[in-house]
Amino acid sequence: MWTQRGDWFKALADQGGWDVPKWPTDFGGPNFTPTQRYIFDLEMGKQPTPPQLPFGVGMLAPILMNYGSKAQQDQFLPGIRDGSVNWCQGYSEPGAGSDLANLKTKAELSDDGSHYLVNGQKIWTTLAQIAHWIFCLTRTSGDGAKQEGITFLLIPMDDPGVEVRPIITLGGSHSVNEVYFTDVKVPVENRVGEEGKGWTYAKGLLAHERSGLAGIQNSVMGLEKAKRNAQKIRIGAGTLLDLSSFKNKVGVLEAELLALEFTEMRTLARVAAGGDPGPESAILKLKGTEIQQRITELNLEAAGVFAAPWGAEAFGPEFAHGATQSYLGGRATTIYGGASEVQKDVIAKNVFGLS
Amino acid sequence: MDLAYTTEQDMLAESIQRFIATEYDLSNRKNLVASDLGYSAQHWQTFAELGWLGMSIPEAYGGLGGDLVDTMIMFEEFGKGLVLEPTLSSLVLFAGALELAGSDEHKHHYLPALGAGDLTGCLAYVEADEPTNFNFVATTALKTEGHYQLNGTKSVVLNAASADVILISARTEGQATDAHGISLFLVPGDTEGLSRKDYPTVDGLRASEVLLDNVRVPASALVGAEGAASQTLNTVINRGILAISAEAVGAMAVLYQSTIDYTKQRVQFDHPLSEFQVVKHRLTEMFIEYNLAKSLCMKATMLLNQNSGDAQRHIHALKFLIGKTSRFVGQNAVQLHGGMGMTEDLAIAHYFKRLMMIDATFGHTDIHLDAFVQ
User: Fold this and answer.
1) Within 10 A of A250 (CB to CB), how many other CB atoms are there?
2) Contact between B199 and A313 using a beta-carbon 8 Å cutoff
3) Interacting residues of A6 by C-beta distance below 8 A, sequence separation 6+
4) pLDDT (tens digit, 9 = 90+) per residue, B234-280?
5) pLDDT tens, residue by residue, B345-370
6) Cβ <8 Å between B338 and A98
7) What is the total count of domains within chain B?
8) CA-nearest residue of chain A to B332?
9) Of B203, B227, B251, which one is at a domain's C-terminal end?
10) Average pLDDT in the B36-63 region?
11) Average pLDDT, integer, range A9-33
């Protein structure tokens, strides 16, 4: 499978940097216009193409391109692009979830200015167990506003002071972790940009990450699949899809998805015209994740009692086991990347000017 | 109208609360989930000694002759502790069906032993081709000289692996979808030709696919009149819906309360979450919805207890509302716990999964909403 995956990304690269569709030409990307990128994502979303882990290509790379040194770009971008180096994101902490700026992981500059000594803990670190490196927000100063005094560091995971502890989540899977740092020495060469500016670097990307979490194309396909699943479930002379209480929910979701798709188009039109994404873009993650969750509910209903079996062997309709996992795992979508409640505060503040 | 519990009923609830407080914390429960049996045989004996197993069994058969209100009280408390023992399978469904339709001989043979905890049973009524309809029975029972021969497959049979006897619905006449022609048979778990595929369920219980390959049982294994089991199934499933609805009410009580507690101690943006208005309102909504579900659970229990003609409608309304409310309360409990709500280390994940399966058991929200509005 990994060979096929590698072949797939190589084939994309051969098209002129399609393996890194968001990268500019200077770094080997296709320099898509916003419209081209939208079409690219749309078409990729229609096929079961292997997803790329977002942490390196999508999250760290743009920060390195904008704020990293030439040496950092030369050292890290090739490994990110060819997938030989896995990255994870060290932002959230036990006391810093939605209130991310409250982070406490401490990075102290040595007297000779050669390295930082890092101590603290990150949490919800996705795929830390396979990562070679972690990019971290750390606190270098407690003075001023919470958003100040945050510094962006790159830390190798094989440092003896780094410990990864698994967190088993609702669906029984292991993808997130706690990451502990004990007296980890990080050379100043691994600091991205200036000390104390890490928040600014990370913030722009977070907004970007959020709009990517709307998953609209996945939802469009997911809803079609849910309808097909429901048609496999016999209810009397018809199927679950014929049941008015179920069918109405499908109809409501279809209508909302049509509207959300066009909301994305409005955002795109503004960006394509050279403007900023505008207030509509804030809606995408909020509504998109809510719709994702409601689609997982439809599949769970179709699975019915066959949602129960939790062994290695599946019973009942073939989609049932996956339906349970998607429903459980999907509860995280309105929590990660900024909980929906906090996102609404952000809209009230940024769009309506309400503090 | 007097809705207060009797002294005996208060004592029943308190005794289960005490048991759960001392025996049923999350780590004890996790150990039981991982054990061979999947629950505690010792607890089962305790349940018998405290009279919980005999609660709904008639006095003539060594039980306490309790009614559905007693059952509701017990299951509400079991739901607060996420109790794993097979009370639904063995008592509500298996003993319930025997008490309704069994012969005197059946009752004498099984009911006292069930109440004493010496025996457990379960009910196999789901089939994969139409899992939400207990009248869909493709499994056949062919009558031959004093015997019946059973063939077919029963799905998601709760507690089949640990049950001594499985009560199985099979067709003695008619087409797979006919309400008439369904019969119930007592089949000991070790009968030749009966095999199982056992699995854990997502909410920590155990279930099985039960395969019947020329299973021969004597004519005396037939429970009730031949071909007339649909009504018995309907009644025990209605009682099962009441029991798990009460269980859901108990589980939701724990969820909203523990969410209040969590939001009081979790500080973000320099304030406990509980000080944010959006959180206060959400907690209040959980409380409101929980109370509506509890009210309907009480009303449906009273109506079924009285054999009211309006009971069936209320059962459908109840199962719909329990599913809807379980989702609302469960999803918001996870949401307000943030990432912590997603971890297996916190109890709320386990309540969430149990509520999810209660919603799916005996037909989910849409099935019952549709039946209710018919």
Assistant:
1) 18
2) yes
3) A83
4) 999 999 999 999 999 999 999 999 999 999 999 999 999 999 999 99
5) 999 999 999 999 999 999 999 999 99
6) yes
7) 3
8) A331
9) B227
10) 97
11) 89
Residues B137, B258 within the same domain: no
**Are B356 and A97 inside 8 Å of each other by CB?**
no
CATH code of B197's domain: 2.40.110.10
Structural domain includes residue B303: yes
Q: In B314-335, which positions are buried (b, 16+ CB within 10 angstroms) versus exposed (e)?
A: bbbbbbbbbbbbbbbbbbbbbb
Mean pLDDT of chain A: 90
* CA B361/CA A304 separation, integer angstroms: 7
pLDDT of residue A46 exceeding 50 = yes
Instruction: Kindly state whether residues A70 and A106 are assigned to the same domain.
Output: no
**Separation CA A299–CA B349 (nearest Å):** 20
- Residue B301 near residue B271 (C-beta atoms within 8 A): no
Is the pLDDT assigned to residue A213 strictly greater than 80? no
Closest CB to B207: pick one of A249, A309, A340. Answer: A309
Q: Which of B135, B156, B209, B265 to mutate to test the interface with A (most CBs of A within 10 A)?
A: B156
One domain for residues B75 and B162? no
Instruction: Supply the pLDDT for residue A21.
Output: 87
Q: What domain range includes position B185?
A: 122-227
Q: Are residues A310 and A230 in the same domain?
A: yes
Number of domains in chain A: 3
Tell me the β-bridge partners of B197: B209
Q: How many CA atoms lie within 13 A of A331 on its CB side?
A: 30
pLDDT for res A207 = 61
State which residues form the domain around A13: 2-82
pLDDT band (50, 70, 90) for residue A2: very low
The token pair at A7 is 């072949």
In a domain? residue B2: no
What local confidence, expressed as pLDDT, does residue A9 receive?
84
